[in-house]
Amino acid sequence: MKRYGKASDVVRLVDRPAPTPRPNEVVCDIAAAALNPIDLRIIEGDLKRIDPYRMPHPIGFDASGTVRAVGSQVRTFRIGDEVFVRASRETIGTFAEQIALPFSFFALKPVDLSHEEAASLPLVGLTTIQALTDRCRVRPGQRILIHAGSGGVGSFAIQFAKAIGLHVATTTSSRNTQFVRDLGADDVIAYDKQDYLQGPTDYDVVFDTLGGQHTLDAFKVARKGGCVVSIAGPPDRNFPDQVDASFATRLVMRFLSRKVFAASREKGIRYYRFLTESDGAQLADIARLVDQQRIRPVIDQIFPFEQLPEALVRLSSKRARGKVVISMAHT
Ligand SMILES: NC(=O)c1ccc[n+]([C@@H]2O[C@H](COP(=O)([O-])OP(=O)(O)OC[C@H]3O[C@@H](n4cnc5c(N)ncnc54)[C@H](OP(=O)(O)O)[C@@H]3O)[C@@H](O)[C@H]2O)c1
């Protein structure tokens, strides 16, 4: 990205020096990378208070590829290993032919997947595990409402929740109802035909991927003592520390969160809002679930690397069914 702005104006393919590994790093030849809405938010400058990037700056979080070189301290990977990875906010740059990242971010790619399929999993998979397992501590038999079940996060989250024994309700438009059923959803609410607020009000967990009014409304459909976990709503109490916010930003965050904090207090419902962290061990867990055929990648569309701008337009439509992926295979 040349500067912050509209993706079509500021994203360009340029030549940069090939990376060499630091002692704890792996250099990966990238075969495919996946897009995430956060790429657009970064490009448009929405996150510049949290993560100011020096321009020009590479972009992209998810990748799958082959290990090209390893640093002197790396014991867990060897040249030629097929791996998948999610970069951190400090190390983004997977929309590229190569990247150097800490070895602890990587895991071996699920054996039966193409690189395009493997690249589609890391960010959405880590987000789901960090929301449902690390924060809400879900248990088999619990009931969960997952918003936007047909999206990148939702399509993974439905499968993960089923794999660990939850009862899954999800919202989507009527054109995607069969699609989310095929992913395993038990109850499907077509938001253009039904109002989910008229349905059950005793979910153990609500996974809010939409934000806005959906975050506040989550407290109307979660049971007392339940859990609302959001990846699009206002900050929770730990969020300012997670992003190392300034005093002024903390005050703004506090103001933005006042209504959810009140709702959370009133109903005794835990509220979480977090940014995803890179974690190779959790990626290995995801690879295991894929190898056991309990989770499969869901790809909306694959674009060649040169068509990254077109891929970003597809993502920005907010209509993707699963993941938008770019392939470097032919570059
Ligand atoms: N840790 C984090 O902070 C974190 C991590 C990952 C993602 N996120 C955020 O989470 C959000 C979702 O990410 P994503 O990758 O899943 O996005 P996405 O793939 O672009 O979501 C597109 C999907 O959303 C569905 N959708 C749109 N409006 C809807 C509505 N009102 N009700 C139900 N479904 C709706 C669409 O289905 P229809 O076409 O059927 O409407 C479409 O399939 C984004 O805001 C992203 O920035 C945050």
From TrEMBL:
<feature type="domain" description="Enoyl reductase (ER)">
    <location>
        <begin position="6"/>
        <end position="326"/>
    </location>
</feature>
<dbReference type="InterPro" id="IPR011032">
    <property type="entry name" value="GroES-like_sf"/>
</dbReference>
<dbReference type="Pfam" id="PF13602">
    <property type="entry name" value="ADH_zinc_N_2"/>
</dbReference>
<keyword id="KW-0560">Oxidoreductase</keyword>
<dbReference type="InterPro" id="IPR020843">
    <property type="entry name" value="ER"/>
</dbReference>
<dbReference type="InterPro" id="IPR050700">
    <property type="entry name" value="YIM1/Zinc_Alcohol_DH_Fams"/>
</dbReference>
<dbReference type="InterPro" id="IPR013154">
    <property type="entry name" value="ADH-like_N"/>
</dbReference>
<dbReference type="InterPro" id="IPR036291">
    <property type="entry name" value="NAD(P)-bd_dom_sf"/>
</dbReference>
<protein>
    <submittedName>
        <fullName>Zinc-type alcohol dehydrogenase-like protein</fullName>
    </submittedName>
</protein>
<dbReference type="GO" id="GO:0016491">
    <property type="term" value="F:oxidoreductase activity"/>
</dbReference>
<dbReference type="InterPro" id="IPR002364">
    <property type="entry name" value="Quin_OxRdtase/zeta-crystal_CS"/>
</dbReference>
<dbReference type="Pfam" id="PF08240">
    <property type="entry name" value="ADH_N"/>
</dbReference>
<dbReference type="GO" id="GO:0008270">
    <property type="term" value="F:zinc ion binding"/>
</dbReference>
